Amino acid sequence: EVEVEPGLRGPEIVTMGENDPPAAEAPFSFRSLFGLDDLKISPVTPDADAVAAQILSLLPLKFFPIIVIGIIALILALAIGLGIHFDCSGKYRCRSSFKCIELTARCDGVSDCKDGEDEYRCVRVSGQNAALQVFTAATWRTMCSEDWKSHHATVACAQLGFPSYVSSDTIRVDSLEEQFREDFVSINHLLPDDKVTTLHQSVYVREGCTSGYVVTLKCSVCGLRTGSSPRIVGGNVSLLAQWPWQASLQFQGYHLCGGSVITPVWIVTAAHCVYDLYLPKSWTIQVGLVSLLDSPAPSHLVEKIIYHSKYKPKRLGNDIALMKLAGPVTFNEMIQPVCLPNSEEHFPDGKMCWTSGWGATEDGGDASPVLNHAAVPLISNKICNHRDVYGGIISPSMICAGYLKGGVDSCQGDSGGPLVCQERRVWKLVGATSFGIGCAAVNKPGVYTRITSFLDWIHEQMELRTKNCGLSHLLGSNFWRLATFYSPAHPNIQTRTQKLLMDTSGERL
């Protein structure tokens, strides 16, 4: 049962009726345990039986226990060996190898992992107040305001993948969330500006801030719009400039997925939109438009496509990707970037957010020629994992939004598009449309990739490409094998998704 705190009225889960057919249960087999189909073996021929009998005669039954014990011992030895080899408890594991390094070796200015991956993701902006933090001496530490200069802000934003910074301010330590008030660093004032090229190599650890203030940072003007505020009942047609970060990702001239503009050259979308569609020249991006039919909006060419290395088409997690444009988008009244959330920023359950896209307005329908939007409340993972909802397959890196009673949802063609929430008059990208069962179905709200879970990955890709180094993940080339949960490219989209979910969770959906 899903418990609701006294005094709070949570979303009501629509329970299944007694007359609903039970889930079909397949008999247990060891082949099914390893994901293999059970096979029907034809009877062997008499000659084969004779050969088998001769072989068995060479293995007296008295040796059978010894053989079994030997096999078990070998398995245990391998398990222990692998456990020792792969155990990185309390350490940092290099993603490009099985190498483990001490946490103190991460962000210490020395490349210990292949490709120097341990020297990236060393800076972040955290919490509701956007406090600047640096990873050093094995933990995240908040930056004190002493000796802080504008040059340092430029360096910090460059490490986050932004070409410059917009503003840097200070805030009292006691105004921060508790987790950001424990460990601190300051800039080494003995270093001249031209020697400060990365923050994590230019700081020293402190027990507290002498000034009582820490640094806040803003790297881009984002999350603003001039369009009118929406009044939502179901789904509404959007106005021009109402969702200025909305992008149409078009494969060979046809709208395939949505995306979100986060900088002049970077678009966030879903990995299942681009998996196997590896040729950037096959894609164009349109922004600053409402209608797909007669839009004068120019098309932007794509330079790179990068999807999360742990995304697998037969799984549901890590469904996030980035597109880098060949040239920058010019921001204006109709085109603006959405803000990324801050690290460890929390968006409460029940908060009303908005999803938008050119997806179908009904399950199985055609994509909409005009941009639509809808208001959807955030749903806790506990409720979304209820046996009558998604049955335990929703991971912490996913977020659900919608209505358990149905009626409002994202749909086919909305994949990769934004789920945005307004926080302090600024719009933030909370999710990227990922998957669902049907569209606006009972107990099947939309599932989105939780952006806060992938901030390090996003900033690392931006930093790598800003410095023109590192490798992009350009793999595969089979369009019709695309796992299009909310994309129109697959002819049996909902059947495929439902089977995938059932295979993953073992529950009837």
UniProtKB/TrEMBL annotation:
<keyword id="KW-0325">Glycoprotein</keyword>
<dbReference type="InterPro" id="IPR043504">
    <property type="entry name" value="Peptidase_S1_PA_chymotrypsin"/>
</dbReference>
<dbReference type="Pfam" id="PF15494">
    <property type="entry name" value="SRCR_2"/>
</dbReference>
<protein>
    <recommendedName>
        <fullName>Transmembrane protease serine 3</fullName>
    </recommendedName>
</protein>
<dbReference type="InterPro" id="IPR002172">
    <property type="entry name" value="LDrepeatLR_classA_rpt"/>
</dbReference>
<keyword id="KW-1133">Transmembrane helix</keyword>
<keyword id="KW-0720">Serine protease</keyword>
<keyword id="KW-0812">Transmembrane</keyword>
<dbReference type="GO" id="GO:0005789">
    <property type="term" value="C:endoplasmic reticulum membrane"/>
</dbReference>
<dbReference type="InterPro" id="IPR009003">
    <property type="entry name" value="Peptidase_S1_PA"/>
</dbReference>
<keyword id="KW-0865">Zymogen</keyword>
<keyword id="KW-0645">Protease</keyword>
<feature type="domain" description="Peptidase S1">
    <location>
        <begin position="232"/>
        <end position="463"/>
    </location>
</feature>
<dbReference type="GO" id="GO:0004252">
    <property type="term" value="F:serine-type endopeptidase activity"/>
</dbReference>
<keyword id="KW-1015">Disulfide bond</keyword>
<dbReference type="InterPro" id="IPR001190">
    <property type="entry name" value="SRCR"/>
</dbReference>
<keyword id="KW-0256">Endoplasmic reticulum</keyword>
<feature type="disulfide bond">
    <location>
        <begin position="107"/>
        <end position="122"/>
    </location>
</feature>
<feature type="region of interest" description="Disordered">
    <location>
        <begin position="1"/>
        <end position="21"/>
    </location>
</feature>
<dbReference type="GO" id="GO:0006508">
    <property type="term" value="P:proteolysis"/>
</dbReference>
<feature type="transmembrane region" description="Helical">
    <location>
        <begin position="63"/>
        <end position="86"/>
    </location>
</feature>
<dbReference type="Pfam" id="PF00057">
    <property type="entry name" value="Ldl_recept_a"/>
</dbReference>
<feature type="disulfide bond">
    <location>
        <begin position="88"/>
        <end position="100"/>
    </location>
</feature>
<dbReference type="InterPro" id="IPR018114">
    <property type="entry name" value="TRYPSIN_HIS"/>
</dbReference>
<dbReference type="InterPro" id="IPR001254">
    <property type="entry name" value="Trypsin_dom"/>
</dbReference>
<dbReference type="InterPro" id="IPR001314">
    <property type="entry name" value="Peptidase_S1A"/>
</dbReference>
<dbReference type="InterPro" id="IPR036772">
    <property type="entry name" value="SRCR-like_dom_sf"/>
</dbReference>
<keyword id="KW-0735">Signal-anchor</keyword>
<dbReference type="InterPro" id="IPR023415">
    <property type="entry name" value="LDLR_class-A_CS"/>
</dbReference>
<keyword id="KW-0472">Membrane</keyword>
<dbReference type="InterPro" id="IPR033116">
    <property type="entry name" value="TRYPSIN_SER"/>
</dbReference>
<feature type="domain" description="SRCR">
    <location>
        <begin position="120"/>
        <end position="220"/>
    </location>
</feature>
<comment type="function">
    <text>Probable serine protease that plays a role in hearing. Acts as a permissive factor for cochlear hair cell survival and activation at the onset of hearing and is required for saccular hair cell survival. Activates ENaC (in vitro).</text>
</comment>
<dbReference type="InterPro" id="IPR036055">
    <property type="entry name" value="LDL_receptor-like_sf"/>
</dbReference>
<dbReference type="Pfam" id="PF00089">
    <property type="entry name" value="Trypsin"/>
</dbReference>
<keyword id="KW-0378">Hydrolase</keyword>
